[in-house]
Amino acid sequence: IKLLAIESSCDETSASVIINGKIINNIIATQDVHRKYGGVVPELASRAHQKNIVPVVDEALRQAGIAKSELSAIAFTQGPGLLGALLVGASFAKAMAMALQVPLIGVNHMQAHILAHFIEEPKPEFPFLCLTVSGGHTQIVLVKSPLEMEVLGETQDDAVGEAFDKTAKIIGLPYPGGPLIDQYAQKGNPLRFEFPETSTPGLNFSFSGIKTAILYFLQREVKKDPDFVKNNLEDICASVQHTLIKMLMQKLKKAARQHHIKHIGIAGGVSANSGLRSTLLQEGEKRGWTTFIPQFEYCTDNAAMIAMAAHYKFLEKEFVGLDAVPNPRMKFHGT
Ligand code: ATP
Ligand code: MG
Ligand code: FE
């Protein structure tokens, strides 16, 4: 089984080849055009995808050393994501599937973030819990099988990645600020400043309150000392990150308790965060969890995870027709 997968849901144009369930490559073109706007501009994202998609796909096939005619199916991210961005990948995949007369596979981007766990060893056993933390989502998912997933809790407002990025913006760091907060936090004192945590019922999250709390806190401090942010950057980042991680871990521990599951993974862009990674390992050790963290390059948006999901879908013959449309708010199937 030789599959080509395309990811274009947000601001990464990516292509990957998977052969018999083994990822061969993962070509990613990151879009820089958004940096100066402090966030992803949807129209610019679509245009950049259009510019990048042919070279990225060519490179993936060339590196894998296979001809288009050898492909068994073409996979693409069907949603969730930005409509215009998704359309580029979907149209390209459809055209290719039609020309090659092979099946088309529509992949759910959030399901794929979780299936990034199956790219390399050690792979989690089913059932396991996955904390999916990214730029647009924050979910605790009960994963029963590769294609059977149930959302147990999710954010009621902002995603945790958004909380990272918006906080970064407030303190004057360039977009995307998440990785920079991580960097500064490594040298700071996480207990120096305290920010109020929002409580939410059940296994749900809320992250919109915290960015406002941080904004007011900084406005207050800057009045007293105009250089407050500059002089305390590392401690501010460490304290914010500490609070966000604490909020995530509370619900994850609760979910593990309630569902009696000790196999726990994290996925999505924010799972690249070094503080979250080390906290998960520590908590896991304390609680007898077996923890799973995908390799760095498979945490943020990439086509390898789409290819992995496509492989499982191919085995189940879960194909879509050429009339398939992208769905910006796509939910999990088969739950
Ligand atoms: P979604 O997957 O929900 O559609 P997305 O695709 O934009 O959203 P990802 O690419 O999975 O999200 O993740 C991007 C997010 O991850 C951004 O918010 C970014 O700041 C955050 N992020 C990446 N690395 C780190 C890090 N080291 N620490 C904190 N946040 C990080
Ligand atoms: Mg991105
Ligand atoms: Fe993503």
Automatic annotation (TrEMBL):
It is found in: Cytoplasm. SUPFAM superfamilies: Actin-like ATPase domain. It holds the Pfam family TsaD. Its EC number is 2.3.1.234. Fe cation binds at H109, H113, D301. The gene is tsaD. InterPro entries: ATPase_NBD, Gcp-like_dom, KAE1/TsaD, Peptidase_M22_CS, TsaD. GO terms for molecular function: iron ion binding; tRNA N(6)-L-threonylcarbamoyladenine synthase activity. It catalyses: L-threonylcarbamoyladenylate + adenosine(37) in tRNA = N(6)-L-threonylcarbamoyladenosine(37) in tRNA + AMP + H(+). Its cofactor is Fe(2+). Keywords: Acyltransferase, Cytoplasm, Iron, Metal-binding, Transferase, tRNA processing. It is an enzyme of class 2 (transferase). This is tRNA N6-adenosine threonylcarbamoyltransferase.
